[in-house]
Design a protein that fits this description.
This protein is mainly β and 285 residues long. It folds into two domains: 130 residues, Sandwich (Jelly Rolls); 128 residues, Sandwich (Jelly Rolls), CATH 2.60.120.10. The protein is 2% helix and 43% strand. Strands 2, 3, 4, 5, 7, 8, 9, 10, 11 and 13 form a ten-stranded antiparallel β-sheet that branches. A six-stranded antiparallel β-sheet has the order 1-20-17-21-15-14, with no helix packed on it. It has a two-stranded antiparallel sheet with strand order 6-12. A hairpin with a 6-residue loop joins β14 and β15. The longest helix is centred in the middle third of the chain and has 6 residues. The two termini are 27 Å apart. 38% of the residues are buried. It binds fe (ii) ion. Fe (ii) ion binds next to loops.
């Protein structure tokens, strides 16, 4: 069983859970955004309280990818602050982890994510796969990979954070400038052969199942036609594709953009009761 189609949930409405002993980050709070019960892969926001520490030498038994939303997180002697990104492969030695000031971190675990004290078995850690740290705020914006997006989206820019040389899986930041609904009345729908996962950091996205506000999250399985989309305020988001390189099949014809869509998200049963939960829009997640 793969992760269920979740499109979309405002992460503000999801409950925090304090992680216990035996978890990957005991004592931190976390909210799971999507979860694969078979592989145990999970996307979660982890909130490290001020002074949080995992002082022993340890490793994780699966890959961890993260993007810091705020605060400061240390892995060994490397400090990560807002906008910093890392891909830490399974088995990477971690002398300690600390968060003296607290931190909130968008975290992607690609498997069972067990923290194991001590040294990893020889051969588990593949240093060639390590991305120790990218300070995304210091990167300049490049062009989106899709030529249609690059040509049609207003002020589109991409910061590529990772592209897996074997699988083609990718992680990137994307921004668009605002559209003018009076001029942009129609758009094309699109389909990808891979999972598209998005966390909206800022701005707004209007699409047929509702309007995504900052803190919105979706996990869309492959081959699901979606769109057309527009953004009245522009957008800034963290994007991932899973299962191979992102390619896009665009519809031949355009259909009307719904700039005031009804809220009708697609949610798995455990999230359905939260579909219309109210939240404080000043909260980021
Ligand atoms: Fe898409």
């Amino acid at each position: 069983m793969a992760r269920p189609h979740t499109e979309f949930i405002q992460t503000q409405v999801l409950p925090w859970k304090t992680l216990g002993d035996g978890s990957s980050r005991p004592g931190a709070d976390a909210k799971a955004l999507s979860y694969d019960p078979d592989s145990k892969a999970v996307t979660a926001i982890i909130k490290y309280p001020i002074g949080w520490s995992l002082p022993e030498n340890h490793y994780l038994d699966s890959d961890e990818e993260f993007y810091v939303l705020d605060g400061e997180l240390w892995v060994g002697s490397v400090a990560y602050v807002k906008g910093d990104y890392a891909y830490l492969p399974a088995g990477m030695p971690r002398p300690s982890m600390n968060s003296p000031k607290g931190a909130s971190v968008m975290t992607f675990h690609e498997g069972t994510h067990r923290t194991v004290v001590g040294d990893a078995p020889v051969g588990l850690y593949e240093p060639a796969r390590l991305i120790a740290k990218i300070e995304s705020t210091k990167m300049s914006w490049g062009h989106p990979s899709d030529p249609v997006v690059a040509a049609t989206a207003n002020g589109a820019g991409r910061k590529l954070l990772r592209e897996d040389p074997k699988t083609g899986d990718r992680t990137w930041l994307l921004q668009f400038g605002p559209d003018d609904p009076a001029k942009m009345t129609h758009g094309r729908t699109e389909t990808h052969p891979v999972v598209e996962e998005v966390f909206l950091l800022d701005g707004e996205i209007s699409m047929p199942m509702g309007t995504l506000k900052p803190g919105a999250y979706f996990w869309r399985p492959p081959h699901i036609e979606h769109g057309p989309v527009g953004t009245r305020k522009g957008l800034f988001g963290l994007f991932r594709c899973k299962g191979g390189p992102l390619t896009t099949a665009w519809s031949d014809t355009e259909s009307p953009i719904d700039w005031n869509p009804a809220h009708r998200p697609i949610l798995p049963p455990h999230l359905a009761p939260l579909a219309n939960a109210t939240y404080d829009p000043d909260l980021q997640y």
